[in-house]
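Ticket #297: bound-state structure for flavin mononucleotide.
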Amino acid sequence: MNFPELKINEEKCIKCGMCVKDCIVHCLEQNEETKIPQFVKDKEYNCIKCQHCLAICPTGALSIWGKNPDDSLNLNEININSDEILDLIKSRRSVRMYKPENLDNERMNKLKNMLKYTPTGVNFHNLHFSFVDDIEVMDKIRNMTNTRAVKLLSNSLVQKMFPHFRGMADAIQNGQDVIYRGAPHMVVVSVPLNAPCRREDPIIALSYFDMYAQSMVGTVWCGFAYYFFKIFPELCDYVEIPDGYRVSYVMLFGQPDVKYSRSTQPEEQNIKSVPLKNIVRPMSVFDKIKRVITNLI
Ligand SMILES: Cc1cc2nc3c(=O)[nH]c(=O)nc-3n(C[C@H](O)[C@H](O)[C@H](O)COP(=O)(O)O)c2cc1C
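RESOLUTION: The complex was predicted; output attached.
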């Protein structure tokens, strides 16, 4: 559906006005007489399709963009266990040993379908996910990348500029899959250049994917593949990244061939509370410029 359509079941509507209050773009109002919600005149096209109005309605009386509230997950009937979620976060590991086999369709579809629930700036929702869901396709990409990587990394100028990559070409030539870690699958996320949050949206999407995937398979963020996708356009073309989209990151996944028995014990993060006694200190122009430049680069 491409036009904003708002339908109110007047028998169910309790006229609480919560849909109006929660609309971030103020395109809803309560009818002055009936108190039934309606679009503010000429504001319906401000709607960013976030469906907060549908989600917040306590009686399921509101349908927007053709969505039936009865098809939503009923949040009054589910109980999310925060301890289990923390256990999942603690148990997540970068998996670098995989069974050389395709995942079953059921799990693959669950992984794909989850991606529409990840948040995007201004509710943009226009990311592109290239799924390699067949190990034979993955093997082709592995070969394409390895051939190009070895050629590039054998160049003496490249070796001088990036000395720490020297061992990679040798390892690939010795048959080690140092880029793709033997993974049978990957997802490459890309973003249109006009996305309001083009740096954040793809990484948020893959972070959600990572956590959900780790509840049933293994994953690893793949910086190496990401860099090779950035510099070898044939790879982007092969996985059909649309024109005008920028490759944002790569995640490998598949059935792990390894089992971790315990969590790691990471060092403490730098976490500090901002005290009420803090004052806004006078800053020199130099310090201000330094701060802004640091923030912007
Ligand atoms: C942005 C990012 C890029 C990464 N790239 C790679 C990679 O190219 N190859 C790899 O084996 N691991 C990669 N990793 C995995 C990290 O090396 C891994 O997180 C680290 O070794 C700690 O292990 P853990 O994730 O199991 O806690 C990457 C992780 C992140 C967050």
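RESOLUTION NOTES: The two ends are 40 Å apart (CA to CA).
TICKET STATUS: resolved
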